[in-house]
Amino acid sequence: MSIASYLSSLQASEWLSVVTLLICVYVAHFYFRYFTRENPLPGPTPLPIIGNLHQMGMGTDIAAWAHRLQCDFGEDIFETYYGSQRTIWIGRADLAVPVLASSTKNNYFNRGVSSPGMREIGLETVGIAANRDYESWKFNRKFFSTVVMSPRFLKKSISATEKLFIEAELYLNNLGSKTQIDMSKFLFRFFVDSMHLSATGKPAHAMAGFYNSLVVPKDKRTDHPKELLDATEEIIFSIKNEFKAARFMFFFPPFIRHYILRYYNNKYVNNVKRFDEILLSIIRKRKAEIDAIPDGDSLNPDMLTLLLTTNTSRDLGIISTGEITRPMTEDEIRADLKEIFSVGIDTTSDSFCYIIWHMCKNPLEKDKVLKELNEVLGTDPTKSIPYESLDRLKYTEAFVKEVLRLNPVLPFLWKMATNDDTLGGMKWKAGTSVFINVYGTQTHAKNWDKPEEFIPARHLEGTKTDRNAYIPFGGGPRLCKCPGKNFAMATLKLLTALLIRRFDIELVDKNAPLKTSFTMVRHCDELKVYLRPKIPITG
Ligand code: HEM
Protein backbone atom coordinates (compact mmCIF):
# COMPACT_ATOMS: atom_id res chain seq x y z
CA MET A 1 0.00 0.00 0.00
CA SER A 2 1.42 3.42 -0.94
CA ILE A 3 1.83 6.12 1.74
CA ALA A 4 -0.83 8.24 0.00
CA SER A 5 -3.45 5.47 -0.01
CA TYR A 6 -2.51 4.53 3.57
CA LEU A 7 -3.01 8.14 4.70
CA SER A 8 -6.32 8.49 2.83
CA SER A 9 -7.63 5.35 4.60
CA LEU A 10 -7.02 6.83 8.10
CA GLN A 11 -9.88 7.67 10.48
CA ALA A 12 -9.91 11.05 12.29
CA SER A 13 -8.58 9.53 15.55
CA GLU A 14 -5.80 7.80 13.62
CA TRP A 15 -4.89 11.10 11.98
CA LEU A 16 -4.52 12.60 15.43
CA SER A 17 -2.13 9.79 16.38
CA VAL A 18 -0.06 10.34 13.23
CA VAL A 19 0.16 14.09 13.82
CA THR A 20 1.06 13.53 17.50
CA LEU A 21 3.73 11.03 16.47
CA LEU A 22 5.19 13.48 13.94
CA ILE A 23 5.26 16.26 16.53
CA CYS A 24 6.99 13.92 19.03
CA VAL A 25 9.61 12.95 16.43
CA TYR A 26 10.17 16.62 15.57
CA VAL A 27 10.50 17.64 19.24
CA ALA A 28 12.82 14.68 20.02
CA HIS A 29 14.98 15.54 17.00
CA PHE A 30 15.04 19.21 18.00
CA TYR A 31 16.20 18.47 21.57
CA PHE A 32 18.63 15.77 20.43
CA ARG A 33 20.32 18.37 18.24
CA TYR A 34 20.11 20.95 21.00
CA PHE A 35 21.71 18.76 23.68
CA THR A 36 24.44 17.50 21.35
CA ARG A 37 25.28 20.91 19.83
CA GLU A 38 28.86 22.00 19.43
CA ASN A 39 30.24 24.37 22.08
CA PRO A 40 27.22 24.34 24.40
CA LEU A 41 26.98 27.71 26.13
CA PRO A 42 24.79 28.75 29.04
CA GLY A 43 21.44 30.19 28.01
CA PRO A 44 17.69 29.67 28.37
CA THR A 45 16.44 26.36 26.96
CA PRO A 46 14.66 27.03 23.65
CA LEU A 47 11.28 25.69 22.53
CA PRO A 48 10.92 24.02 19.12
CA ILE A 49 9.99 26.39 16.25
CA ILE A 50 9.98 29.59 18.33
CA GLY A 51 13.24 29.20 20.25
CA ASN A 52 13.32 31.85 23.00
CA LEU A 53 11.04 34.31 21.19
CA HIS A 54 8.44 33.94 23.95
CA GLN A 55 11.02 35.02 26.56
CA MET A 56 12.52 37.81 24.47
CA GLY A 57 9.15 39.56 24.63
CA MET A 58 9.27 41.08 21.15
CA GLY A 59 7.63 44.36 22.08
CA THR A 60 9.44 44.80 25.36
CA ASP A 61 13.00 45.66 26.08
CA ILE A 62 15.35 43.02 24.63
CA ALA A 63 18.33 44.94 26.02
CA ALA A 64 17.03 44.47 29.55
CA TRP A 65 16.38 40.78 28.84
CA ALA A 66 19.90 40.26 27.50
CA HIS A 67 21.32 42.06 30.52
CA ARG A 68 19.34 39.82 32.87
CA LEU A 69 20.65 36.74 31.05
CA GLN A 70 24.21 38.01 31.30
CA CYS A 71 23.74 38.50 35.07
CA ASP A 72 21.78 35.24 35.58
CA PHE A 73 24.34 33.06 33.84
CA GLY A 74 27.26 35.02 35.24
CA GLU A 75 28.89 34.68 31.83
CA ASP A 76 29.99 37.17 29.21
CA ILE A 77 29.22 34.75 26.42
CA PHE A 78 25.90 32.95 26.28
CA GLU A 79 23.38 31.77 23.69
CA THR A 80 19.74 32.21 22.74
CA TYR A 81 17.54 31.13 19.85
CA TYR A 82 15.15 33.13 17.74
CA GLY A 83 13.17 30.52 15.87
CA SER A 84 15.69 27.79 15.17
CA GLN A 85 18.49 30.31 14.75
CA ARG A 86 21.14 29.91 17.42
CA THR A 87 22.77 33.19 18.41
CA ILE A 88 25.93 33.74 20.42
CA TRP A 89 25.85 36.83 22.64
CA ILE A 90 29.08 38.56 23.59
CA GLY A 91 28.98 41.00 26.47
CA ARG A 92 32.60 41.82 27.17
CA ALA A 93 34.84 44.14 25.20
CA ASP A 94 37.89 41.87 24.83
CA LEU A 95 35.76 38.95 23.61
CA ALA A 96 34.35 41.22 20.88
CA VAL A 97 37.77 42.05 19.39
CA PRO A 98 37.62 39.63 16.40
CA VAL A 99 34.07 40.77 15.60
CA LEU A 100 34.74 44.49 15.81
CA ALA A 101 38.26 44.58 14.33
CA SER A 102 38.48 47.51 11.89
CA SER A 103 40.23 45.57 9.20
CA THR A 104 39.16 44.92 5.66
CA LYS A 105 39.77 41.23 6.41
CA ASN A 106 37.17 41.31 9.20
CA ASN A 107 35.04 38.19 9.12
CA TYR A 108 31.83 39.91 10.27
CA PHE A 109 30.79 42.24 7.47
CA ASN A 110 27.18 41.06 7.39
CA ARG A 111 24.60 42.44 9.78
CA GLY A 112 23.11 39.23 11.20
CA VAL A 113 22.29 36.10 9.26
CA SER A 114 20.36 36.29 6.03
CA SER A 115 16.66 36.19 6.82
CA PRO A 116 13.87 35.09 4.47
CA GLY A 117 11.66 37.83 5.91
CA MET A 118 14.14 40.62 5.21
CA ARG A 119 14.53 39.26 1.68
CA GLU A 120 10.75 39.30 1.26
CA ILE A 121 10.63 43.04 1.99
CA GLY A 122 13.63 43.58 -0.27
CA LEU A 123 16.01 44.93 2.35
CA GLU A 124 18.99 42.63 1.83
CA THR A 125 20.11 43.93 -1.55
CA VAL A 126 19.37 47.67 -1.37
CA GLY A 127 20.32 50.57 0.88
CA ILE A 128 22.92 50.35 3.62
CA ALA A 129 22.02 49.04 7.04
CA ALA A 130 20.60 45.65 6.02
CA ASN A 131 22.30 45.34 2.63
CA ARG A 132 24.25 42.07 2.32
CA ASP A 133 25.52 42.65 -1.21
CA TYR A 134 28.99 44.09 -0.63
CA GLU A 135 29.32 45.96 -3.93
CA SER A 136 25.85 47.46 -3.67
CA TRP A 137 26.43 48.41 0.01
CA LYS A 138 29.77 50.03 -0.83
CA PHE A 139 28.15 52.12 -3.58
CA ASN A 140 25.24 53.30 -1.44
CA ARG A 141 27.32 53.88 1.63
CA LYS A 142 29.79 55.99 -0.36
CA PHE A 143 27.04 58.34 -1.57
CA PHE A 144 25.27 58.45 1.79
CA SER A 145 28.38 59.03 3.92
CA THR A 146 29.86 61.58 1.55
CA VAL A 147 26.72 63.70 1.88
CA VAL A 148 25.93 63.14 5.56
CA MET A 149 29.50 63.53 6.80
CA SER A 150 30.32 66.62 4.71
CA PRO A 151 30.88 69.79 6.81
CA ARG A 152 28.54 71.68 4.47
CA PHE A 153 25.65 69.28 5.16
CA LEU A 154 26.37 69.26 8.90
CA LYS A 155 26.49 73.06 9.11
CA LYS A 156 23.29 73.48 7.13
CA SER A 157 21.45 70.83 9.09
CA ILE A 158 22.51 72.27 12.43
CA SER A 159 21.32 75.71 11.41
CA ALA A 160 18.00 74.23 10.18
CA THR A 161 17.62 72.30 13.46
CA GLU A 162 18.10 75.51 15.44
CA LYS A 163 15.36 77.21 13.41
CA LEU A 164 13.07 74.24 14.00
CA PHE A 165 13.73 74.56 17.71
CA ILE A 166 12.40 78.13 17.59
CA GLU A 167 9.20 76.71 16.07
CA ALA A 168 9.12 73.98 18.76
CA GLU A 169 9.58 76.61 21.46
CA LEU A 170 6.55 78.47 20.19
CA TYR A 171 4.37 75.36 20.45
CA LEU A 172 5.74 74.42 23.88
CA ASN A 173 5.17 77.93 25.19
CA ASN A 174 1.63 77.98 23.80
CA LEU A 175 0.84 74.66 25.45
CA GLY A 176 1.83 76.26 28.76
CA SER A 177 3.87 75.15 31.75
CA LYS A 178 0.96 73.29 33.35
CA THR A 179 0.48 70.94 30.38
CA GLN A 180 1.99 67.49 30.65
CA ILE A 181 4.01 67.01 27.47
CA ASP A 182 5.02 63.56 26.35
CA MET A 183 8.47 64.37 25.01
CA SER A 184 8.81 60.95 23.38
CA LYS A 185 5.98 61.92 21.00
CA PHE A 186 6.98 65.56 20.62
CA LEU A 187 10.64 64.76 19.91
CA PHE A 188 9.77 62.09 17.38
CA ARG A 189 7.85 64.78 15.49
CA PHE A 190 10.72 67.22 15.93
CA PHE A 191 13.15 64.78 14.34
CA VAL A 192 10.76 63.93 11.51
CA ASP A 193 10.78 67.64 10.70
CA SER A 194 14.53 67.89 11.13
CA MET A 195 15.43 64.84 8.98
CA HIS A 196 12.82 65.70 6.33
CA LEU A 197 14.27 69.19 6.02
CA SER A 198 17.86 67.91 5.96
CA ALA A 199 17.05 65.18 3.44
CA THR A 200 14.67 66.96 1.07
CA GLY A 201 15.18 70.64 1.83
CA LYS A 202 11.43 70.96 2.46
CA PRO A 203 9.50 71.17 5.74
CA ALA A 204 7.18 68.35 6.81
CA HIS A 205 5.29 70.19 9.62
CA ALA A 206 5.12 67.09 11.81
CA MET A 207 5.32 69.16 15.01
CA ALA A 208 2.50 71.38 13.81
CA GLY A 209 0.26 68.33 13.34
CA PHE A 210 1.07 67.12 16.84
CA TYR A 211 0.51 70.58 18.34
CA ASN A 212 -2.86 70.91 16.59
CA SER A 213 -3.91 67.53 17.97
CA LEU A 214 -3.30 68.81 21.52
CA VAL A 215 -4.86 72.25 21.23
CA VAL A 216 -8.60 72.34 21.76
CA PRO A 217 -9.65 75.88 20.65
CA LYS A 218 -9.55 75.78 16.87
CA ASP A 219 -8.41 79.41 16.59
CA LYS A 220 -5.22 78.53 18.47
CA ARG A 221 -4.24 75.86 15.96
CA THR A 222 -1.77 76.50 13.15
CA ASP A 223 -3.17 77.19 9.70
CA HIS A 224 -1.21 74.49 7.82
CA PRO A 225 -3.32 72.99 5.02
CA LYS A 226 -4.96 69.72 6.07
CA GLU A 227 -3.70 67.79 3.01
CA LEU A 228 -0.13 68.73 3.92
CA LEU A 229 -0.51 67.53 7.51
CA ASP A 230 -2.28 64.36 6.37
CA ALA A 231 0.56 63.55 3.96
CA THR A 232 3.05 63.97 6.79
CA GLU A 233 0.97 61.70 9.04
CA GLU A 234 1.24 59.02 6.37
CA ILE A 235 5.03 59.39 6.34
CA ILE A 236 5.10 59.20 10.14
CA PHE A 237 3.01 56.03 10.08
CA SER A 238 5.38 54.52 7.50
CA ILE A 239 8.48 55.39 9.52
CA LYS A 240 7.00 53.80 12.64
CA ASN A 241 5.97 50.73 10.67
CA GLU A 242 9.40 50.22 9.12
CA PHE A 243 11.18 49.09 12.30
CA LYS A 244 8.21 47.05 13.50
CA ALA A 245 8.09 45.32 10.12
CA ALA A 246 11.85 44.66 10.10
CA ARG A 247 11.68 43.19 13.63
CA PHE A 248 8.75 40.95 12.67
CA MET A 249 10.27 39.82 9.37
CA PHE A 250 13.75 39.25 10.82
CA PHE A 251 12.86 37.31 13.94
CA PHE A 252 9.82 35.23 12.94
CA PRO A 253 10.38 32.15 10.79
CA PRO A 254 8.44 31.98 7.48
CA PHE A 255 6.20 29.15 8.72
CA ILE A 256 4.89 31.25 11.63
CA ARG A 257 4.56 34.40 9.50
CA HIS A 258 2.83 32.74 6.57
CA TYR A 259 0.50 30.36 8.39
CA ILE A 260 -0.05 31.58 11.96
CA LEU A 261 0.57 35.33 11.84
CA ARG A 262 -0.52 35.80 8.22
CA TYR A 263 -2.58 38.91 8.95
CA TYR A 264 0.40 40.73 10.48
CA ASN A 265 2.72 39.50 7.76
CA ASN A 266 0.52 40.96 5.02
CA LYS A 267 -0.06 44.16 6.94
CA TYR A 268 3.65 44.82 7.44
CA VAL A 269 4.56 43.90 3.86
CA ASN A 270 1.87 46.20 2.44
CA ASN A 271 2.90 49.08 4.68
CA VAL A 272 6.53 48.72 3.60
CA LYS A 273 5.39 48.81 -0.05
CA ARG A 274 3.36 51.95 0.63
CA PHE A 275 6.39 53.69 2.18
CA ASP A 276 8.40 52.83 -0.94
CA GLU A 277 5.67 54.41 -3.10
CA ILE A 278 5.65 57.58 -0.98
CA LEU A 279 9.43 57.91 -1.23
CA LEU A 280 9.38 57.32 -4.97
CA SER A 281 6.79 60.02 -5.44
CA ILE A 282 8.94 62.50 -3.44
CA ILE A 283 11.93 61.61 -5.64
CA ARG A 284 10.00 61.91 -8.92
CA LYS A 285 8.54 65.25 -7.88
CA ARG A 286 11.99 66.60 -7.10
CA LYS A 287 13.37 65.25 -10.34
CA ALA A 288 10.65 67.09 -12.24
CA GLU A 289 11.45 70.28 -10.29
CA ILE A 290 15.15 69.98 -11.18
CA ASP A 291 14.34 69.31 -14.84
CA ALA A 292 12.21 72.46 -14.90
CA ILE A 293 15.12 74.63 -13.70
CA PRO A 294 17.24 75.75 -16.68
CA ASP A 295 20.82 74.44 -16.90
CA GLY A 296 23.18 76.93 -15.29
CA ASP A 297 20.63 78.15 -12.71
CA SER A 298 21.53 77.15 -9.15
CA LEU A 299 19.92 74.22 -7.35
CA ASN A 300 19.42 73.87 -3.61
CA PRO A 301 22.07 71.37 -2.46
CA ASP A 302 19.90 69.33 -0.07
CA MET A 303 20.58 65.61 0.29
CA LEU A 304 17.95 64.50 -2.23
CA THR A 305 19.15 66.93 -4.91
CA LEU A 306 22.75 65.81 -4.34
CA LEU A 307 21.79 62.14 -4.65
CA LEU A 308 19.85 62.88 -7.84
CA THR A 309 22.44 65.05 -9.55
CA THR A 310 25.85 63.70 -8.53
CA ASN A 311 27.65 62.14 -11.54
CA THR A 312 25.02 63.57 -13.93
CA SER A 313 25.21 66.60 -16.24
CA ARG A 314 23.66 68.65 -13.39
CA ASP A 315 26.37 67.61 -10.88
CA LEU A 316 26.75 70.44 -8.35
CA GLY A 317 30.41 69.60 -7.77
CA ILE A 318 29.81 69.47 -4.02
CA ILE A 319 30.45 65.82 -3.28
CA SER A 320 33.00 63.55 -4.86
CA THR A 321 32.34 59.83 -5.06
CA GLY A 322 35.92 59.00 -6.06
CA GLU A 323 36.24 56.05 -8.39
CA ILE A 324 32.43 55.71 -8.62
CA THR A 325 31.37 57.63 -11.69
CA ARG A 326 27.83 56.49 -12.36
CA PRO A 327 24.77 58.27 -10.91
CA MET A 328 22.41 56.55 -8.49
CA THR A 329 19.33 54.75 -9.77
CA GLU A 330 15.88 55.80 -8.57
CA ASP A 331 15.70 52.67 -6.44
CA GLU A 332 19.05 53.32 -4.80
CA ILE A 333 18.02 56.89 -3.95
CA ARG A 334 14.77 55.58 -2.51
CA ALA A 335 16.68 53.18 -0.29
CA ASP A 336 19.10 55.87 0.94
CA LEU A 337 16.22 58.24 1.65
CA LYS A 338 14.48 55.51 3.59
CA GLU A 339 17.70 54.98 5.53
CA ILE A 340 17.82 58.56 6.80
CA PHE A 341 14.13 58.44 7.75
CA SER A 342 14.15 55.04 9.42
CA VAL A 343 17.63 54.85 10.93
CA GLY A 344 18.13 58.57 11.56
CA ILE A 345 14.92 59.59 13.32
CA ASP A 346 14.24 57.05 16.07
CA THR A 347 17.89 56.82 17.10
CA THR A 348 18.26 60.56 17.68
CA SER A 349 14.81 61.19 19.14
CA ASP A 350 15.02 58.26 21.58
CA SER A 351 18.57 59.26 22.57
CA PHE A 352 17.38 62.79 23.28
CA CYS A 353 14.59 61.43 25.50
CA TYR A 354 17.26 59.60 27.50
CA ILE A 355 19.25 62.86 27.72
CA ILE A 356 16.23 64.70 29.16
CA TRP A 357 15.66 61.86 31.62
CA HIS A 358 19.25 62.04 32.89
CA MET A 359 19.07 65.86 33.08
CA CYS A 360 16.12 65.48 35.44
CA LYS A 361 17.69 62.65 37.43
CA ASN A 362 21.14 64.27 37.78
CA PRO A 363 20.58 67.99 38.53
CA LEU A 364 24.16 68.57 39.67
CA GLU A 365 25.49 67.25 36.37
CA LYS A 366 22.94 69.38 34.53
CA ASP A 367 24.25 72.46 36.35
CA LYS A 368 27.79 71.65 35.20
CA VAL A 369 26.53 71.50 31.61
CA LEU A 370 24.72 74.82 32.06
CA LYS A 371 27.85 76.41 33.48
CA GLU A 372 29.85 75.30 30.45
CA LEU A 373 27.15 76.56 28.07
CA ASN A 374 27.25 80.01 29.68
CA GLU A 375 31.04 80.10 29.55
CA VAL A 376 31.35 78.99 25.93
CA LEU A 377 28.21 80.48 24.36
CA GLY A 378 27.73 83.54 26.58
CA THR A 379 24.90 84.19 28.99
CA ASP A 380 22.27 85.25 26.44
CA PRO A 381 20.29 82.06 25.72
CA THR A 382 18.51 83.63 22.75
CA LYS A 383 21.77 84.01 20.81
CA SER A 384 22.24 81.64 17.90
CA ILE A 385 24.67 78.74 18.44
CA PRO A 386 27.19 78.50 15.60
CA TYR A 387 28.12 75.00 14.42
CA GLU A 388 31.80 75.63 15.18
CA SER A 389 31.14 76.32 18.87
CA LEU A 390 29.63 72.85 19.40
CA ASP A 391 33.15 71.43 19.28
CA ARG A 392 34.09 73.44 22.35
CA LEU A 393 31.26 72.02 24.48
CA LYS A 394 33.38 69.31 26.07
CA TYR A 395 31.33 68.70 29.21
CA THR A 396 28.06 68.73 27.26
CA GLU A 397 29.57 66.15 24.94
CA ALA A 398 30.70 64.04 27.91
CA PHE A 399 27.14 64.23 29.30
CA VAL A 400 25.66 63.04 25.98
CA LYS A 401 28.24 60.25 25.76
CA GLU A 402 27.44 59.04 29.26
CA VAL A 403 23.73 58.93 28.36
CA LEU A 404 24.56 56.81 25.29
CA ARG A 405 26.68 54.52 27.47
CA LEU A 406 23.84 53.74 29.85
CA ASN A 407 21.07 53.96 27.27
CA PRO A 408 22.37 52.74 23.91
CA VAL A 409 19.51 52.95 21.40
CA LEU A 410 21.00 50.02 19.51
CA PRO A 411 21.44 47.72 22.50
CA PHE A 412 23.10 45.01 20.45
CA LEU A 413 25.03 44.80 17.20
CA TRP A 414 24.06 42.01 14.81
CA LYS A 415 26.87 40.21 13.11
CA MET A 416 27.46 36.95 11.22
CA ALA A 417 30.70 35.04 10.75
CA THR A 418 31.36 34.79 7.00
CA ASN A 419 34.04 32.07 7.48
CA ASP A 420 34.84 29.63 10.30
CA ASP A 421 36.30 31.51 13.26
CA THR A 422 37.42 31.33 16.89
CA LEU A 423 35.48 33.34 19.45
CA GLY A 424 35.73 33.10 23.23
CA GLY A 425 38.32 30.34 22.78
CA MET A 426 35.87 28.15 20.80
CA LYS A 427 35.74 27.31 17.12
CA TRP A 428 32.58 28.42 15.27
CA LYS A 429 31.31 27.55 11.82
CA ALA A 430 30.74 30.06 9.01
CA GLY A 431 27.19 31.43 9.26
CA THR A 432 27.21 31.67 13.08
CA SER A 433 25.01 34.49 14.29
CA VAL A 434 26.73 36.75 16.83
CA PHE A 435 25.15 39.60 18.80
CA ILE A 436 27.40 42.04 20.62
CA ASN A 437 25.58 43.07 23.77
CA VAL A 438 26.29 46.81 23.68
CA TYR A 439 24.73 47.53 27.05
CA GLY A 440 26.65 44.57 28.55
CA THR A 441 30.01 45.80 27.29
CA GLN A 442 29.27 49.44 28.17
CA THR A 443 28.49 48.56 31.78
CA HIS A 444 31.03 45.80 32.35
CA ALA A 445 32.86 46.05 35.68
CA LYS A 446 36.07 44.92 33.95
CA ASN A 447 36.14 48.15 31.91
CA TRP A 448 34.24 50.70 33.96
CA ASP A 449 34.51 52.01 37.52
CA LYS A 450 31.09 52.19 39.18
CA PRO A 451 29.54 51.05 35.87
CA GLU A 452 25.91 51.71 36.82
CA GLU A 453 26.56 55.29 37.99
CA PHE A 454 26.05 58.35 35.83
CA ILE A 455 29.49 60.00 35.65
CA PRO A 456 29.98 62.17 32.51
CA ALA A 457 33.52 63.18 33.53
CA ARG A 458 34.74 59.70 32.60
CA HIS A 459 34.47 60.75 28.94
CA LEU A 460 36.52 63.95 29.22
CA GLU A 461 39.67 64.24 27.16
CA GLY A 462 42.63 62.44 28.62
CA THR A 463 40.52 59.60 30.04
CA LYS A 464 41.28 56.27 28.41
CA THR A 465 38.47 53.91 27.40
CA ASP A 466 39.26 50.25 26.78
CA ARG A 467 38.94 49.03 23.20
CA ASN A 468 35.32 48.09 22.33
CA ALA A 469 34.10 49.03 25.80
CA TYR A 470 32.25 52.05 24.35
CA ILE A 471 30.37 51.26 21.13
CA PRO A 472 27.06 53.21 20.96
CA PHE A 473 27.72 53.94 17.27
CA GLY A 474 28.87 50.42 16.57
CA GLY A 475 32.13 48.99 15.42
CA GLY A 476 33.67 46.67 12.92
CA PRO A 477 34.32 46.70 9.24
CA ARG A 478 31.42 48.80 8.01
CA LEU A 479 33.90 51.64 7.95
CA CYS A 480 33.41 54.15 10.66
CA LYS A 481 30.37 52.20 11.91
CA CYS A 482 27.45 54.63 11.98
CA PRO A 483 27.80 57.21 9.17
CA GLY A 484 25.36 59.49 11.03
CA LYS A 485 27.55 59.71 14.14
CA ASN A 486 28.85 63.29 13.67
CA PHE A 487 25.43 64.49 12.59
CA ALA A 488 23.76 62.81 15.58
CA MET A 489 26.32 64.04 18.13
CA ALA A 490 26.19 67.63 16.84
CA THR A 491 22.38 67.60 16.86
CA LEU A 492 22.16 66.13 20.37
CA LYS A 493 24.61 68.68 21.76
CA LEU A 494 22.81 71.54 20.06
CA LEU A 495 19.40 70.48 21.36
CA THR A 496 20.73 69.92 24.86
CA ALA A 497 22.11 73.47 24.83
CA LEU A 498 18.91 74.97 23.43
CA LEU A 499 16.50 73.11 25.69
CA ILE A 500 18.14 73.51 29.07
CA ARG A 501 19.02 77.17 28.54
CA ARG A 502 15.44 78.00 27.60
CA PHE A 503 13.37 75.67 29.76
CA ASP A 504 13.27 74.22 33.26
CA ILE A 505 12.27 70.60 32.89
CA GLU A 506 10.44 68.55 35.50
CA LEU A 507 9.39 64.91 35.22
CA VAL A 508 5.65 64.51 35.84
CA ASP A 509 6.29 61.32 37.83
CA LYS A 510 9.74 61.56 39.37
CA ASN A 511 9.68 57.98 40.62
CA ALA A 512 8.36 56.21 37.55
CA PRO A 513 10.90 54.06 35.68
CA LEU A 514 11.64 54.82 32.05
CA LYS A 515 9.08 53.21 29.75
CA THR A 516 10.93 51.50 26.92
CA SER A 517 10.29 48.95 24.20
CA PHE A 518 12.24 47.37 21.37
CA THR A 519 11.66 47.11 17.63
CA MET A 520 15.07 47.22 15.96
CA VAL A 521 16.12 50.02 18.32
CA ARG A 522 15.32 50.66 21.97
CA HIS A 523 12.53 53.23 22.11
CA CYS A 524 11.52 55.55 24.88
CA ASP A 525 7.75 54.99 24.87
CA GLU A 526 6.71 57.78 27.18
CA LEU A 527 8.44 60.71 28.87
CA LYS A 528 5.96 63.09 30.42
CA VAL A 529 7.37 66.41 31.59
CA TYR A 530 6.41 69.95 32.53
CA LEU A 531 8.39 72.60 30.69
CA ARG A 532 8.69 76.05 32.25
CA PRO A 533 10.08 78.75 29.95
CA LYS A 534 13.10 80.57 31.38
CA ILE A 535 12.88 83.34 28.81
CA PRO A 536 9.95 85.74 29.23
CA ILE A 537 7.36 85.04 26.52
CA THR A 538 6.68 88.08 24.36
CA GLY A 539 3.85 88.73 21.94
C1 HEM B 1 22.18 58.87 18.55
C2 HEM B 1 21.98 58.55 17.30
C3 HEM B 1 22.51 57.32 16.62
C4 HEM B 1 23.03 56.18 17.15
C5 HEM B 1 23.25 55.84 18.63
C6 HEM B 1 23.38 55.31 16.05
C7 HEM B 1 23.95 54.07 16.19
C8 HEM B 1 24.24 53.22 15.14
C9 HEM B 1 24.77 51.89 15.29
C10 HEM B 1 25.11 51.22 16.61
C11 HEM B 1 24.89 51.35 14.05
C12 HEM B 1 25.35 49.93 13.73
C13 HEM B 1 26.84 49.88 13.59
C14 HEM B 1 27.40 48.47 13.54
O1 HEM B 1 26.67 47.52 13.28
O2 HEM B 1 28.60 48.33 13.77
C15 HEM B 1 24.41 52.35 13.11
C16 HEM B 1 24.38 52.17 11.75
C17 HEM B 1 23.90 53.11 10.87
N1 HEM B 1 23.47 54.38 11.16
FE1 HEM B 1 23.39 55.20 12.99
N2 HEM B 1 23.05 55.93 14.87
C18 HEM B 1 22.52 57.16 15.18
C19 HEM B 1 22.07 58.12 14.28
C20 HEM B 1 22.11 57.99 12.92
C21 HEM B 1 21.71 59.01 11.99
C22 HEM B 1 21.20 60.40 12.39
C23 HEM B 1 21.85 58.48 10.74
C24 HEM B 1 21.59 59.13 9.41
C25 HEM B 1 21.75 60.37 9.15
C26 HEM B 1 22.35 57.13 10.89
C27 HEM B 1 22.60 56.27 9.85
C28 HEM B 1 23.08 54.98 10.00
C29 HEM B 1 23.28 54.05 8.90
C30 HEM B 1 22.97 54.32 7.43
C31 HEM B 1 23.79 52.87 9.44
C32 HEM B 1 24.20 51.61 8.70
C33 HEM B 1 25.68 51.68 8.38
C34 HEM B 1 26.21 50.50 7.57
O3 HEM B 1 25.70 49.41 7.70
O4 HEM B 1 27.15 50.69 6.80
N3 HEM B 1 22.51 56.88 12.23
N4 HEM B 1 24.04 53.48 13.79
Number of distinct helices? 19
Oligomerization: single chain
For the termini, the CA-CA separation is 91 Å
Strand order of the largest sheet: 1-2-7-4
* Helix/sheet category: alpha+beta
Report the portion of residues in β strands.
5-15%
Q: Tell me the overall shape.
A: globular
Let me know the number of strands. Answer: 11
Element-level helix/strand string: HHHHEEHHHHEHHHHHHHHHEEEEHHEEEE
Mean pLDDT across all amino acids: 90
What's the story with the biggest beta sheet? Answer: 4 strands, mixed
Can you walk through the features of this model?
- With 539 residues, this protein is α+β, with helices and mostly antiparallel strands.
- 51% of the residues lie in helices and 9% in strands.
- The strands form four sheets. It has a four-stranded mixed β-sheet with strand order 1-2-7-4.
- The radius of gyration is 25 Å and the shape is globular.
- The model has no long low-confidence stretch (mean pLDDT 90).
- The site of protoporphyrin IX containing FE has 29 residues, from helix 7, helix 15 and helix 19.
Task: Offer a few descriptive terms.
single chain; 539 residues; alpha+beta; 4-stranded mixed beta sheet; 3-stranded antiparallel beta sheet; 19 helices; 11 strands; 51% helix; binds protoporphyrin IX containing FE
Strand and helix map with partners:
Layout: H1 3-8, H2 12-35, H3 53-56, H4 62-73, E1 77-82, E2 85-90, H5 97-100, H6 116-120, H7 134-148, H8 151-175, E3 181-182, H9 183-200, H10 206-214, H11 226-251, H12 254-260, H13 262-292, H14 303-309, H15 330-361, H16 363-377, H17 394-406, E4 412-416, E5 421-423, E6 426-428, E7 433-437, H18 438-442, H19 485-502, E8 503-507, E9 515-518, E10 522-526, E11 528-533
Helix pairs in contact: 8-9, 8-19, 9-15, 11-13, 12-13, 13-15, 15-17, 15-19, 16-17
The protein binds protoporphyrin IX containing FE.
Residues 111, 128-129, 141, 144, 148, 339-340, 343-344, 347-348, 351, 404, 409-410, 413, 472-476, 478, 481-484, 487-488 line the site of protoporphyrin IX containing FE (HEM).
Protein name: 11271_t:CDS:1
Organism: Scutellospora calospora
